Amino acid sequence: MNFYWSPEINPVVLSDKSIKLAHFSDLHLAGRQDRRRLERLGTLLTAIVNAGCSHIVISGDLFNSTDPADWVVIREILQEKGLYSWDRVTIIPGNHDLINLEEEMRIYNALNPDSKSRTRRVLEKTKEFCNVFRELITGEDTVAGFPYIKVLQYGDMTVSLVMVNTVFPWANTDNPLGARGYARPEELRALLDPSVDSALKGSFVVGVCHHAYRIYGTGILIDQAFDWTMELKNREELLQTMLRLRARLLLHGHFHRFQAYTAGGIRVVNGGSFSYNPRRYSEIAIYPDGNFKQKFVDI
Ligand SMILES: [Fe+2]
Ligand SMILES: [Fe+2]
Q: Which ligand number lies closest to the CA of residue 94?
């Protein structure tokens, strides 16, 4: 087992009264040379800040590569915008960030097809990802990992984000496109530790993961086949864990659609895909009485 659990919750006191979260996902950028879309990312971030959002969640699939040199580009843009801090931005990885599908299929499968090495590669990539974005995870210059929790304090109110990594290793039979998701039981168990419950007490809790709770869900066979390649295998377990943590919202990406729906009493928001529409994001306004409103905003 190789995961990090960061029990240290760093409270942040902000003077801002309005609590608005922004969420978008699935950028699928083509690297540093993808100038046009990187510019569009800058435009979106500026619009989000101007709309008064206190925190931004980006739920994975940043680039179409697993190269940490690419991830640094996002870090630089956030730094330019003055957003590269723990209390302003949360970024989690998606399958495209952690799984090099071509390598898995052509090289590793031939050389070493055992599942342990695949899991190890995903966990090592996760560690690299957390290392690049460590200041956004811990608020300090130390490496941490999944699952992790942020408790953001805004005056008398706290908003807590609970991050789970749902990237499931590639496997020619069980995950042929590398796009199926799985919340590791170790991570879910860690979240049920009593210390988590007490840290979240009185907080407005928001879960964050990459994979979609719901995909098509139609009875049509071709859709079902597609669902299978994209699905979050143990979505019910993840949902149950979020319910235990009294989460009000679950934010995800992966399935490139801007949509909001309800599952088990939790409002689930798919942040859609920046790659399809770089001028849209999901905005969540949280009120002191515990109510919230979610809408998609076009800039
Ligand atoms: Fe994606
Ligand atoms: Fe994805």
A: 2
